[in-house]
Amino acid sequence: MVFEDYSYEILPDGSIGITGYMGCEEDLLLPSQIGGLPVKEIRQHAFTMTDVVDVRLPEGIEVIAPEAFAMCESLRHVLLPASLQSLGAGAFKSCEALREIECAQGSSRYFVQDGLLYDGKASALVLCPPGLDLESVSVPQGIRTIASAAFYLNRKLRYVKLPLSLERI
Asked: What pairing do the DSSP bridges indicate for beta strands 16-21 and 37-42?
């Protein structure tokens, strides 16, 4: 099904999952509803290889599937809603220009500190945006996990200080 520049599907719970984007807008504020139904998911590869630069996800989005924004080479900024419950592996894989991720006020599942995205429990480093062009990172004490590909395409990164609390990379 199609609504404006978005393809979508109706999920079993009656909500909407966006499955694709056919538009050419660089700055996107995704719809919070389609046909009166709430948009709750961004499905796998929905925005892969699009030319989006700035993406603002509305409240109500709960799931961003793996690789939903993969290979968006121009993507620089993402605003995650407080309602986000799950960020799939590699959701922003190969987004080399990505330099800023924000979490909406009230987010309990994710937060940003020094430009890096962490889970809300402060136990996992989720992503170091490659566009930050950092040469060194000090992972805070208490972090137990570094997500797969968290530092992928951070070409200038030369030094990562790991905490004693780290259990899994």
From this structure: parallel
Q: What is the pLDDT of residue 122?
A: 87
Return contacts of 149-154, CB within 8 angstroms, 24+ apart.
Answer: 149/89, 149/90, 149/93, 150/125, 150/126, 152/93, 152/94, 153/94, 153/95, 153/96, 154/128, 154/130
Report, as ranges of residue numbers, the positions in the chain whose pLDDT lies below 50. Answer: none
Q: Name all domains of the chain by residue range, CATH numbers in brackets.
A: 2-161 (3.80.10.10)
Q: Residue 164: count other Cβ atoms within 10 Å of its Cβ.
A: 6
Q: What pLDDT sits at residue 80? A: 98
User: Taking the chain, what is the end-to-end CA distance rounded to the nearest angstrom?
Assistant: 39
